[in-house]
TrEMBL record:
Name this polypeptide is given: Multisubunit sodium/proton antiporter, MrpG subunit
Biased composition (Pro residues): 121-130
Family affiliation: Belongs to the CPA3 antiporters (TC 2.A.63) subunit G family.
Residues in the signal sequence: none
Transmembrane segments: 9-30, 50-76
Organism, scientific name: Mycetocola miduiensis
Record bears the keyword Transmembrane helix: yes
Entry-linked NCBIfam families: CPA3_mnhG_phaG, PRK12674.1-2
Region: Disordered, residue numbers: 112-138
InterPro entries (UniProt xref): PhaG_MnhG_YufB
Entry GO MF terms: sodium:proton antiporter activity
């Protein structure tokens, strides 16, 4: 088994790594110029910092229940953080809250232009068509 002193050192190192990730995310949020850059700064260190804190908790409390709970937390966070950042990025793009001069390649502009020309937002992939009312009138 790991002695208590080594366990405490590992825990301190993991908490410091997590604090460094949180600090990097905060600096990135303050320093980066637009929404898309800030999203990158907020989401990447967040999941790494969460993993470091989860590992620190697991080192201090090595039980199956702790591992199961921490695994669920990390999986759900890893699934939801990128989706949330993607949706915020699309909203920022559509509402023009970004600096287009910082974009290297704009892959979304064609589909947004087509949607605006058609007058309706495009349906998400996999969305079934709207149901039709085929009842006779009268």
């Amino acid at each position: 088994m790991i002695s208590d002193d080594i366990r405490e050192i590992i825990t301190v190192v993991l908490v410091l790594v997590s604090a460094l990730m949180c600090f990097a995310a905060g600096v990135g949020l303050m320093r980066f110029p637009d929404v898309l850059s800030r999203l990158h700064a907020a989401t990447k260190p967040q999941i790494l910092g969460l993993m470091a804190i989860a590992a620190a908790v697991a080192v201090n409390n090595a039980t199956i229940a702790t591992f199961a709970l921490l695994t669920a937390i990390i999986i759900f966070q890893a699934l939801t953080a990128p989706i949330t950042a993607h949706m915020v990025g699309r909203a920022a793009y559509r509402s023009d809250h970004l600096r287009r001069d910082l974009l290297i390649r704009d892959e979304l502009s064609d589909s947004v232009d087509r949607a605006e020309q058609d007058g309706a937002p495009p349906a998400p992939h996999g969305t079934p068509p709207a149901p039709r009312d085929d009842r006779p009138s009268g």
